[in-house]
Amino acid sequence: MDMALKRNPSSASLVDPRLEAVLLRHEIETFNVRYANALDEQRLADWTEMFTDDATYVILSRENHDRNMPVGLIYCEGKGMIRDRAFALSETAMFAPRYLRHIIGNLDLLGDERDGTIKARANYVVLQVLFDRPDATLHQIGVYYDAFRRENGVLKLADRRCVYDNLLVPNALCLPV
Amino acid sequence: MAWTRAASLNEVPEGKALGIEVDGIHIALYNLDGKIYATHGICTHALALLAEGWIEDGKVECPLHQGQFDIRTGKALCAPVTEDLRTYAVRVEGDDILIDPEQPAAETVFGSRPAAAAPAKDASRVVIVGAGQAAAAAIRAMRTAGFNGSIDLVGTEPHLPYERPPLSKEFLLGTAEFSSSVRLSETDAVQLGVRLHLGVAATAIDAAQRQITLANSEVLAYDALLLATGGTPRRLGIPGADLPGVHYLRTIEDAAAIGATLDRAHHVAVIGGGFIGLELASTAISRGVAVTLLEREREIMARIMPAAVGRAFRIMAERHGVDIRRDARVIEITRRGARLGVVTGEDTIEVDAVLVGIGMQPTFDLALQAGCTTTPAGIEVDAQGRTSVPGIWAAGDCALYHEPVAGRRLSLQSWQNAEEQGAAAGRSIAGHNTAVAQKHPWFWTDQFGRNVQMLGIVSAEDHVALAAADEAGPGAIYRMFDKATGRLAGVVAFSNPQAIRAARAELDSATPFDPDIHGAIISSKGQDGADAMEASVMNANPGLSLTKRYIWPADGLTRIPDWVYTDQAIYEREVEKIFHGRTWNYVALEAEVPNSGDFIRSNVGPTPVVVSRAEDGSIHVFENRCAHRAAEFCRELSGNAKEFVCPYHQWSYDLKGNLAGVPFRRGVGGKGGMPADFRNADHGLRRLKVTTHRGVVFASYCDDMEPLADYFTPEIMREFEATFDGRKLKVLGYYRHSLPGNWKLYHENLKDPYHATLLHTFLVTFGLLVAGNKSLMLADPSGRHGVMASAKSDGKAVSSDAKKEMRAYKEGMTLAEPRFMDFVDEFDSPWSVTMATIWPNLIVQREMNTLGVRQIVPTGPHEFIMKWTMFGFEGDTEEMTRHRLRQGNLMGPAGFLGLEDNEAIKFVQDGMQRVPNGEHLVKLDPAVEAGTADNLISEAAIRAMYKHWRAEMGL
Ligand SMILES: Cc1cc2nc3c(=O)[nH]c(=O)nc-3n(C[C@H](O)[C@H](O)[C@H](O)COP(=O)(O)OP(=O)(O)OC[C@H]3O[C@@H](n4cnc5c(N)ncnc54)[C@H](O)[C@@H]3O)c2cc1C
Ligand code: FES
Ligand SMILES: [Fe+2]
Predict the structure, then answer these.
(1) Of B497, B715, B888, B940, which is the most buried if we count CB atoms within 10 A?
(2) Banded pLDDT at B111 (limits 50, 70, 90)
């Protein structure tokens, strides 16, 4: 099922680059779907495992991003901090129960780096439902600026910067995006 | 003396001025109602000729900057002039005006001139202590009765005896001068053989030796002593009673100070609804100054007259626009910038000055020393003014009326009483002890264009009959009948002197009550009750609709009603009274607008403003609302501009908010366009006052806002400066979020250290804050600002007791990356964490090394927006910046703590939506009623905030 394992990077010449691109796109889209599912089901430990050990994960506003200001709603340097975030949210944080839907689309592959890092971007939408309101609200809308890397052949996020357009966060952001 | 001819009379027509030069001195001559005055010709402020100024009401207005001087006295009356003008003596001889450049005009001098001593021809020596009205009356009576011994008159005031009634009336209205109030002129003193000791108090008495000692150590022996020491105004016994701007009235100097105050004031508070209070209110109103009068009782004058008559006085005052608050408790007077705040149980009334008229305290310490019988109301005397000590008489305000009235000894404290008692004592001292027919006590007052007179002695309990169509109109006659005997006790008549003349006979004949002549008895009770109801409702919520009641729970500060957080009218009043009121509102950091032309959008309360830096480096804050059609013209979050142009019709404004250009202002082809008198200067953007401190910019709608340091108080300033320690700020980014709760809940959250140990499991688990940590919940004296402070400890220090208390404490939890919780001790402060809540819209966050300011932007009772500006300092290393960013995970709308607070506040607002008429309970830490708490299990700072809030809101 994991196509990446069957690929032999050293025999690139055997592979049609167009097919390669389709496979990679498929692979990342599949990754993003799983990522969304993990968050929708609030399996934060699984979500943590989708990052490399040295990964950075930051959620920041479009306003900060455009002005080169680094402040993030969530700002994690390294998997340890990502794990702490997951741990704190599931074990210590108090917030109203809710359902979330992460929808990821418009994936755009921005090319490979020499070290095997794959740059990509994708749009995302997070819908939130609180139990006492009939409507799902558009909780966040933005762009992922990503860098993927393979660890033991498995695709992982080495960097995900979630840049959101709706500058005014509705109340609180209780779960990652 | 060098009288010099200055001009001829016809050169100075009535109401005009003439500039001349005498001995090289510029002099202005004026003709006021046919009388000539001379002052120095040049304004004391700048080089301008006063003869070219505007003359009105005895004042000359400088043509250059519109400063004003009193022509008669030279007194500087208003800004920008502060220095009085020199005046010169004037004499008119035939058609010639003569002036003496070495001698000031008579009116400038109030003081006494050296007295000519009269030789004593008689062995008998009289000393009078107190050179007031009663003394003057006594002296005249003594001499008329043939007394030819010596008279020594001792007076603390430096003036010749003068009468006081004009002080609250004509003198303040400028229709009378001091000289016309003098009761014993210098010439009189010489003629009557009175030795004057003015400006010196009598300090001691030796009744056995019959000696008086003066403050200058002089000793005067007497055969007869008259105490005519009057009294002093009763003072308010509340904090702030002696602040500058709080005036009492007894002397000419007091009156001059009040007069000067009324020149500048727009709104004054009068405390006390007695005669003096009402006369002051009347004077102020007729001088165009708004008046709020505060009366402690149910009705004004209630202690001296029946409520029905007090009511008539009140209606008269109210018809003239005096805002009268009855049942009003004045708790404190506070400084509010250049103004004063009168804090009542319900409201804070902001005024330019406070005029106090709450009664008089008789002065009788010498009588006590001499052993005279006294009551707290004064010295006991008989009809001849004799006290209980032989050789000592007393008269006037310091003495009681000679007989009890309705069983009580009282002092009449009136002009007539001073005359009558003074004269009686004088005659008695001269040896005439035969009783003279007593006159009925009489009193008058002039207010609101009416002359009200009172004859007889009335008391609050009397029955009242009213003969009038209009209860407070001219002609109205009130007759008071003693409750027990049914006899006529007194008459009060509004602008009806004939009625008073007639009343003499009525009182003499003890006319029985006849409803046909006197009108029906108006039962004061029923009316009184209805009035009181009306009064308490009006006082409870001035300005708020009566159909909706906002009644604070009887428990006081330990309960907060839900309407505080949910009501639209309350919210609108908060915008007016708080955000647009006397507050400094955070708007930006200077680092956000470092260069000229830089601007950033911000808010003051809900109101959008622009913060801009002008070419000269100054920072300006103005409304983001076009002066033309209200368009919110600036749409970028921040940027750099040369000017602001409204996109709708291209009106342009400079960086200070002044209107620079209006397209087609003159129309096209001579048609259309703005009116000819349109001036750009009148149509700029609404500009706010601005102040900055340590790189933080504040704005205020209040024009005379006090300096920031005063607004903060030293405690809050210390914490503010611990965070803004002088290093240059570097903005690291923003968070913005909406919050579905009332804006005050955010302040409360940060004045509620109790929740920190219970809600924030994360904080407690990792030892950032535990119930036993060193901590402080500071509130400033006003209660509006606060600082929640704590010092970090490691989790190990938590005692097992404390752990049990805190459900939040979770054993054995560890972080994979604990370093983000490290505290780099970079501040000069014992605290590792401080959260300063600075009223009304700023929170300064120093959560170890993650720093930020949070700005509250309310949008309605149920929601506000929070803008966080996170910063570090210039010179931070890359690693330090990253440390601040990592630690930032604690705060903000996704912060480990931040998200929990936001959720909790939302829960509170949700909880109020569905339960009508609810209340909150804030009872923790009863040892502190409201204010600073030294422990975390306290809500005292929340109570302090509401104490302030209620005073500001008048609720
Ligand atoms: C503003 C104002 C308005 C008034 N309006 C009216 C009105 O409209 N109608 C009305 O009937 N009455 C009015 N009165 C009341 C009236 O003026 C007084 O009742 C009257 O002045 C009392 O005269 P007196 O001589 O007893 O006291 P005062 O005139 O007060 O004279 C007492 C003098 O004694 C001096 N003194 C005190 N102790 C010593 C000492 N130890 N040694 C030396 N000197 C001392 C004081 O400095 C003072 O100058 C008014 C009073 C005031 C203040
Ligand atoms: S509304 Fe601004 S120019 Fe007309
Ligand atoms: Fe909190």
Answers:
(1) B888
(2) very low
Tell me which residue in B733, B762, B893 faces A70 most closely, judged by beta carbons. B733
**What pLDDT score does B44 carry?**
78
CA dihedral of residues B681, B685, B686, B689 (deg, nearest 10): -90
Closest CA to B217 of B228, B203, B206, B230: B203
Query: B440 and chain A: CB distance < 8 Å anywhere?
Result: no
User: What is the SS3 assignment for B354?
Assistant: strand
Within B33-185, strands assigned E span 35-40, 54-56, 59-61, 68-70, 87-93, 96-100, 125-129, 150-155
CA pair distance A42, B745, nearest whole angstrom: 30
Let me know if residue A177 belongs to a domain: no
Ranges of chain A whose pLDDT falls below 50: 1-6
Beta bridge pairs of residue B659? B653
Pairing of strands A154-164, B35-40: unpaired
**Distance from the CA of B680 to the center of ligand 2, in angstroms?**
14
Element (H, E) at B624: none
The values of phi and psi at residue A159, to 5°, are -160, 130
Distance from residue B633's CA to the centre of ligand 2 (Å):
8
Strand-strand pairing, B488-494 and B450-456: antiparallel
The amino acid at residue B54 is: W
Number of domains in chain A: 1
**pLDDT 10s digits, B429-463:** 998 887 777 778 888 888 998 889 899 988 888 88
- CA-nearest of B309, B286, B310 to B296 is B310
Alpha-carbon distance B768 to A112, whole Å? 44
Residue among A48, A94, A139, A177 with most chain B CBs within 10 A, to mutate:
A94
**Half-sphere exposure of residue B410, counting CA atoms within 13 Å on the CB side?**
14
Domains in chain B with CATH codes = 4-100 (2.102.10.10), 125-232+362-429 (3.50.50.60), 243-361 (3.50.50.60), 442-539 (3.30.390.30), 585-697 (2.102.10.10), 714-907 (3.90.380.10)
DSSP B799: -
Q: What is the pTM of this model?
A: 0.67
Give residue A27's domain range. Answer: 2-164
Mean pLDDT of chain B: 88
- Which of B127, B368, B372, B415 is the best mutation target for the ligand 1 pocket, counting ligand atoms within 8 Å of the beta carbon and taking the most? B415
* Alpha-carbon separation of residue B144 from B117, B118, B122, B291, B432 (angstroms): 19, 17, 15, 46, 11
pLDDT tens per residue, range B794-838: 544 445 555 555 444 455 567 888 888 889 999 999 999 999 999
Pick from B114-123, B202-211, B521-530, B751-760: least confident = B114-123
**How far apart (Å, rounded) are the C-alpha atoms in residues B750 and B64?**
54
Q: Do A63 and B637 touch (CB under 8 A)?
A: yes
